[in-house]
Amino acid sequence: MHILSAAQTHELDQATIEEQGIPSVELMERAAGAFAEWFARHFTPHAAGETLVLCGPGNNGGDGLAVARLLYQAGYAMRVALLPADKQSADWQHNRRRLPKAVPVAEISAESLPHIMPGAVVIDALFGTGLTRPLAGLPATVVAHLNTAAARVVAVDIPSGLFADAPQPADSIIVRAQHTVSFGLPKLAFLLPQNAAFVGQWHLKEIGLSPHFLANAATDWHYTDAATVAGALPPRPKFSHKGTFGHALLLAGSRGKMGAAVLSAGACLRGGVGLLTAHIPGCGYDIFQISQPEAMCLTDTQADFISELPELKPYQAVGIGPGLGQEAASLEVLRQLLKAADKPLEKTGQPLPLVIDADALNLLGSHRELLKLLPENTVLTPHPKEFERLTEPARDDYHRLELLRDFAIQYRCLVVLKGAYTCLATPTGELHFNSTGNAGMATGGSGDVLTGLLLALRAHAQIPAFEAVRLGVYAHGRAGDLGAAQTGQVGLVAGDIVRHIGPALSEV
Ligand SMILES: NC(=O)C1=CN([C@@H]2O[C@H](COP(=O)(O)OP(=O)(O)OC[C@H]3O[C@@H](n4cnc5c(N)ncnc54)[C@H](OP(=O)(O)O)[C@@H]3O)[C@@H](O)[C@H]2O)[C@H](O)CC1
Ligand SMILES: [K+]
């Protein structure tokens, strides 16, 4: 699914109206209808009590007026407060006329701000995607008043005061909504941690926007959902054998961190790899062989860390990092691996696929001269702190996305920035935000599981690099969601994610 800029969203509206030959108020009616339907499923008229709709002068306010009418007709007690303006949009005026006389309407002024009881339900329709500057003056006063009222706020399309697609001053006055009911496509702002307190839970409503425009819109921002990855995993042919799905090598573990190697290996096996060999320090032999009998195991001459790179010929992909530690000898192994992997393989003509995680990323961060050795399409899976070590501290979430994109382009690699809405950056500068996963996955070992799964998918000869990573990120999150459905988010551990990789992959 695409993510569009505010300007493109406006073009999308126009394209829909022209293509479908409908008046623009019809599109507003669809949006208001979708909002009212969501509202009615979340609040009974009794639970909502007297509901206040705050309306601005544009089409977001027009949506609010239409919502007030529809909810009034559905039996809700409604009142409306209008922000004064020199000019209101045509569709606003249309819906102002259609508002039943029985709904009380007040004009807002600094002296008469709407009275809001604690716990009251308020629908925020002040500003939407047409916001052109941070709120100031009366609009800012109204929003600050709303934010201190301890109301239950549901935003129409986007919380008022929030830019849909761009950074804004840190002290901007923005509605703090519990829910945001948005139309058509997710807004970039919803996917950034810095906006979570404004957006609350967001819900997407289909309003029949032009599929033709959506398919052809030029954007570097994408949202990976179930439809995106459907069919990405080729069916296993009847006459396949274990060689068909690749032989992966995992370099992982050190004393006290063998669990990372075990979890990562488990995920790789559940990710459908044909064969897995793990190269681990001597101390981990019994632990690893007992807990992962399906994998083969090579032990390093060092007991506590990895100091040797095995012969790479047998392998179709290599993962390095989980539980690795940062010994000087392990750094040398990483250096040798990067050099060896950069030669094109006989079979594919491509460099050996690599997945680099955890301490291997930290080693890259502390020895940045190694970055230029990264073979094309290498997969890096940093969390924001690890990413910062590879680049620089980000000013805000938008700046971090900029750094991420630049890094992926400069080093021609696939960078998976982990977090809620994990973001995959590609060498061509696209950003793909993931839709699956939950806060239960913020637990030790979760990243090791992702590395193992990505390793399995990169070893698969029939899945191109980018598709493999996008699929792996999606399936990892989905496995976490399936796991949390059983354990709850609090009780979820990384092993639960491993156990649900199979079901997650069979869904796609
Ligand atoms: N496809 C869809 O998503 C649909 C969306 N709909 C709804 O329409 C809004 C977008 O409506 P639009 O009229 O473009 O914009 P807004 O309602 O957000 O606001 C525009 C007015 O607000 C003024 N403005 C902008 N910034 C400020 C500010 N900081 N302070 C005060 N006033 C501001 C602006 O005037 P200017 O001064 O900038 O000229 C406009 O008067 C979308 O979010 C949806 O809710 C459709 O209903 C259906 C399809
Ligand atoms: K709004």
TrEMBL record:
InterPro entries cross-referenced by the UniProt entry: Carbohydrate_kinase_pred_CS, CARKD, Nnr, Ribokinase-like, YjeF_N_dom, YjeF_N_dom_sf
Catalysed conversion reaction: (6S)-NADPHX + ADP = AMP + phosphate + NADPH + H(+); (6R)-NADPHX = (6S)-NADPHX; (6R)-NADHX = (6S)-NADHX; (6S)-NADHX + ADP = AMP + phosphate + NADH + H(+)
Cofactor comment text: Binds 1 potassium ion per subunit.
Domain YjeF N-terminal: from-to ranges: 9-215
Residue positions binding (6S)-NADPHX: 59-63, 128-134, 157, 260, 323, 383, 448
Keywords from the UniProt entry: ATP-binding, Isomerase, Lyase, Metal-binding, Multifunctional enzyme, NAD, NADP, Nucleotide-binding, Potassium
Entry's family note: In the N-terminal section; belongs to the NnrE/AIBP family. Belongs to the NnrE/AIBP family.
Function summary: Catalyzes the epimerization of the S- and R-forms of NAD(P)HX, a damaged form of NAD(P)H that is a result of enzymatic or heat-dependent hydration. This is a prerequisite for the S-specific NAD(P)H-hydrate dehydratase to allow the repair of both epimers of NAD(P)HX. Catalyzes the dehydration of the S-form of NAD(P)HX at the expense of ADP, which is converted to AMP. Together with NAD(P)HX epimerase, which catalyzes the epimerization of the S- and R-forms, the enzyme allows the repair of both epimers of NAD(P)HX, a damaged form of NAD(P)H that is a result of enzymatic or heat-dependent hydration.
Protein name: Bifunctional NAD(P)H-hydrate repair enzyme
Organism listed in the record: Hymenobacter segetis
Lineage of the organism: Bacteria, Pseudomonadati, Bacteroidota, Cytophagia, Cytophagales
